[in-house]
Specification:
single chain; about 325 residues; alpha+beta; two-stranded antiparallel sheet; disordered N terminus
């Protein structure tokens, strides 16, 4: 596979590099959705490794020669064939992002995704395609800020994605949640039961979904999951953040129980935001055991109150000799 140096961007002749950050490898459906032009090309026009000859246009319009800045050719070899995903800007075309290329042998797969993007209703009617992760993700991108694409409307898409949440295939469920989120559809009624799913790959996105789309109906299941956490768990942080976003004080007893078991983190921040005088005492016990998150929860609680902020709460230096310094005065 052809690789680019981090931060490298491909541009057409006469343009200058655009944004040069790198935020990971995008999926094909996302690349297809973001691209204004998609072409297949061969590296090394007339022996010049900085130039790519366009041999096939999959979408949009581009010149026959795509030119690289001289600093961006490391790792490319003459004769390499690749697909480029390009976006339009004030200075012309550039890659969607620095690694927005794929192997040329994926061209037919990309052409199929383009067909799904153009006429999703046709593929929704095909039972062999309608539940595939690639199509579900394509739906999410196709309906960003759009009410209708071809013959397919937004309401029908939401109903289909909600139905897919009942699938036994974890990837189908997770992709459907992501697609709903991508199109801004806060369909929490179907997502809330997934908070207690036994598959971590499903449970975690469900918790993050209700943090994005706060719903008080999620508080009960979130607290049940929190009650099952005895020590460290990667679920603690998203549960705490979700409960903060929902903002329902019904979560306070479970948050206090968690702190009582020594579970600190985002749940401590949530307790600081939602708790009462009793919660303050629970958090103080954590502070006495040098728990930084408990101290942060305390600070949140103090900011909520009308009480004067005490100077010791701002002293949170750590050392192996003394631990957390929270009673400096």
């Amino acid at each position: 596979m052809i690789r680019f140096l981090a931060g490298v961007i491909v541009v057409l002749a006469g343009t200058t590099p655009g944004w040069a950050g790198d935020y990971g490898l995008m999926s094909l459906p996302e690349l297809v959705a973001r691209a204004d032009v998609i072409v297949v090309g061969t590296v090394g026009e007339a022996g010049d490794p900085c130039r790519v000859t366009v041999t096939r246009t999959l979408f949009g319009t581009a010149k026959k020669i795509v030119e690289f800045p001289s600093y961006s050719v490391a790792g490319l070899r003459e004769g390499d064939a690749l697909v480029l995903f390009l976006t339009s800007g004030k200075k012309g075309l550039s890659l969607v992002y620095p690694r927005a290329t794929r192997r040329a042998k994926q061209a037919d797969e990309i052409a199929r995704l383009l067909a799904m993007r153009a006429d999703p209703a046709k593929y929704l009617a095909d039972s062999t395609v309608a539940s595939t992760p690639e199509f579900l993700e394509t739906l999410g991108w196709a309906f960003v800020d759009r009410v209708k694409v071809g013959a397919l409307d937004r309401k029908t898409v939401k109903e289909h994605l909600v139905q897919m949440l009942e699938s036994r295939e974890p990837k189908t469920v997770v992709t459907s949640m992501a697609a709903l989120k991508q199109m801004g559809a806060k369909e929490t009624t179907a997502v809330v039961p997934l908070i207690k799913n036994r598959d971590d790959a499903v449970q975690m996105p469900a918790i993050r979904f209700v943090a994005w789309a706060p719903d008080k109906a999620a508080v009960g299941p979130l607290c049940e999951v929190l009650d099952g956490i005895k020590g460290y768990s990667n679920l603690e942080e998203p549960i705490g953040r979700a409960l903060m976003e929902i903002g329902d004080t019904a979560a306070v007893p479970a948050l206090e129980r968690a702190a009582g078991r020594g579970v600190y983190g985002a749940t401590s921040w949530a307790l600081g935001r939602l708790g009462d005088k009793k919660s303050c005492e629970v958090l103080m016990a954590g502070v006495d055991h040098d728990k930084m998150d408990a101290l942060e929860g305390m600070m949140v609680m103090v900011r909520r109150s009308n009480k004067r902020f005490e100077s010791w709460m701002g002293v949170n230096q750590w050392s192996e000799a003394t631990g957390l310094k929270h009673k400096g005065d």
